[in-house]
Design goal:
heterodimer; A: alpha/beta; 8 strands; 50% helix; B: alpha/beta; 2-enoyl-CoA Hydratase, Chain A, domain 1; two-stranded antiparallel ribbon; 10 strands
């Protein structure tokens, strides 16, 4: 059962009609195949049209869609023998960020990413993908381990942002994020980041200061949530749509601003309508980029990464 | 032209101007409300003589406080103006113009080189009065200039931070200043040069989550608000009131996040001491040719070296 977004109402109506007709045709003897096919084609066309010109605010909804593939879905489909590694060795284990060693298309890698969780229990367990300092410190630990064992690092970014809480501040949320970015920039192994859902501010960059950054077509990456920006600059959270436009948060915008290296197209109707195809496409893109830099020397990888961020925004 | 128009009138005029605009003469402490002579406040390092509140100050005042005397401002290259063509209730370009008129500076971070207690140092100061000190491309550029200079001249880098966070009007490009600024300060640290951060009121958001928390030595001014998430955001998320002193400098010290809280009037001597000890490290500790150090294992426990 697809859960529809607000702007998908016309599509929902068509698709529901198709379902109804199918049910009645099973009971009824009258031949309505033609009618069903016509409606299906219409729904499909409408879906394609709608998704071809999503507004930034609509993309935001798609990026946050509850059925969008998550870290654990990528692990299941793209990797073999994923061995999760837990804990920051300092305070605790934060399931908002997962990571472990696995085999990806024949090569051992360190895979790290946000996990928002699914269902009420899952979301609570993973704290909606909002990491605390221990989550970032675990990521640092895993990146450093990957550096020692010469394992490429692949990250999957999907978070609304770092968790704002008393304990998180006490334990140095800011320092943890800063150090995680610093770890990304320091390691001498290839690093690829894929923004697969929400790239929410510092909590996202903490895992994304990579040699190559790819982004799913309808994912977003922003300095602040449109709601937060609207509250601050417009003094009105209802202006989130305007903020989403102004902030330029879409993959296409980021490609133009040279912040990301490639946009990976999503299936018609968004990643959640065909998770397998989406995950495979991300896997192919990651493999392609990894192959390009797999043989590079540690110094070249580190310097290349630093140069990439130094140059960002200098030539637009 | 007479004595009257040439000498007396301008004096009267200037007197009248001053009393018309008491802002220039008096400053009100935002903490205790005490009216203090501007000159007295400046002589007191912009710390309220009554309640010891540390007022927010810009680069000019900070450079005056920290450097021995003369200092040289380093020029920061222009960055792309308004890359997103951003407009909320106001245009970003207009906000920049206003901030420039208000502060007399090109952007939030200013860089200078001079001597602190005799030792040369590069100092970058973030100005909260310039669009909340917000971190945009110009911030990254200023830190790159500062770190380039520190590396080229083999000097310590001191960053005096003050910002609400990232400059939203530059969207993703402001977010990218987090890794960018870290690249800048890491180059200094890679050369074995000290990078010292002074956190002032307020330092929050993406600024704390990047260069401002990565100093070899972390100093904060008393009472400064320092944190990642905004207090309102935290309260709305956890639906609890925040404990007193939360996210203040002393709170961070207690939680092991900074090395020290230093009064502004002691800041210069603290920095001078640290820089001197880190940079001029050779001293006379080198064993002279006449001193023979016994191999390890032959030193009895508790025995002093010759």
């Amino acid at each position: 059962m697809v859960s529809y977004l607000d702007f998908e109402k016309p599509i929902a109506e068509l698709e529901n009609k198709v379902r109804e007709l199918r049910q009645t045709s099973a009971a009824d003897s009258g031949d309505i195949t033609e009618e069903v096919e016509r409606l299906e084609a219409k729904a499909e066309a409408l879906l394609r049209q709608t998704y071809a010109k999503l507004t930034p605010w609509q993309k935001m909804q798609v990026a946050r869609h509850q059925d969008r593939p998550h870290f654990e879905d990528y692990v299941a489909r793209l990797t073999d023998g994923f061995q999760p590694l837990a804990g920051d060795r300092r305070f605790g284990e934060d399931p908002a960020i997962l990571g472990g060693i696995c085999r990806f298309r024949g090569r051992s890698i360190m895979l790290i990413g946000h996990e928002k969780g699914r269902g009420t229990d899952g979301r609570l367990r993973h704290n909606f993908g909002m990491a605390k300092p221990e989550g970032y410190r675990k990521a640092i630990r895993l990146m450093e381990m990957a550096d020692r064992f010469r394992l490429p690092v692949v990250t999957l970014v999907d978070t609304s942002g770092a968790y704002p809480g008393i304990g998180a501040e006490e334990r140095g949320q800011a320092e943890a994020i800063a150090s995680s970015i610093e770890a990304c920039l320091r390691i001498g192994v290839p690093m690829i980041a894929a923004v697969v859902g929400e790239g929410g501010s510092g909590g996202a960059v903490a895992l994304a200061a990579a040699n190559r950054i790819i982004m799913l077509e309808h994912s977003v990456y922003s300095v602040i949530s449109p709601e937060g920006c609207a509250a601050i600059l417009w003094n009105d959270r209802e202006k989130a749509k305007d903020a989403a436009e102004a902030l330029r948060i879409t993959a296409a915008d980021l490609l133009k601003l040279k912040v990301v290296d490639e946009v990976v197209p999503e299936p018609s109707g968004g990643a959640h309508r065909d998770p397998d195809a989406t995950i495979d496409a991300v896997g192919d893109a990651v493999e392609r980029h990894l192959r390009l830099i797999a043989a590079a020397e540690p110094v070249a990888l580190r310097e290349g990464r630093r140069r990439k961020f130094l140059d960002m925004g200098r030539v637009l | 032209m007479s004595w009257l128009t040439e000498t007396v009138l301008p004096k009267i005029r200037s007197f009248a101007r001053k009393s018309d605009t008491p802002d220039n003469l008096w400053v009100k402490c935002p903490n205790c409300g005490q009216m203090v002579f501007n000159k007295e406040m400046a002589e007191n390092a912009h710390v309220c003589p009554k309640c010891d509140h540390h007022l927010r100050i810009g680069p000019a005042a900070r450079f005056e406080i920290l450097f021995d005397g003369d200092y040289t401002r380093l020029e920061v290259p222009e960055v792309a103006a308004d890359p997103l063509k951003f407009k909320d209730s106001k245009r970003y370009t207009d906000r920049i113009k206003e901030a420039r008129a208000k502060t007399g500076e090109r952007d939030a971070v200013q860089v200078a080189e001079g001597r602190i207690g005799g030792n040369r140092a590069v100092v970058a100061v973030q100005n909260f009065a310039f669009m909340g000190g917000s971190m945009g491309m110009a911030t990254g550029e200023a830190l790159v200039v500062a770190s380039d200079r520190a590396v080229a001249e083999h000097l310590p880098l001191i960053v005096v931070a003050a910002a609400g966070g990232a400059r939203m009007q530059e969207g993703i490009l402001s977010l990218m200043q987090m890794p960018r600024s870290i690249v800048a300060v890491e180059r200094v640290r890679d050369k074995g040069l000290p990078y010292i951060c002074v956190l002032t009121d307020p330092t929050t958001g993406g600024v704390t989550a990047s260069y401002a928390m990565l100093g070899d030595i972390q100093i904060a001014e008393p009472g400064a608000l320092i944190g990642f998430a905004g207090q309102r955001v935290i309260e709305q998320t956890i639906r609890e009131t925040l404990p007193p002193g939360f996210q203040r400098a002393e709170f961070l010290l207690q939680h092991g996040m900074i090395d020290m809280v230093v009064h502004r009037k002691k800041l210069k001597e603290t920095l001078a001491r640290l820089i001197d000890q880190i940079i001029n490290r050779e001293g006379t500790l080198h064993p002279g040719p006449e001193v023979e150090i016994p191999p390890p294992g032959e030193i009895p426990h508790g025995a002093a070296l010759p």
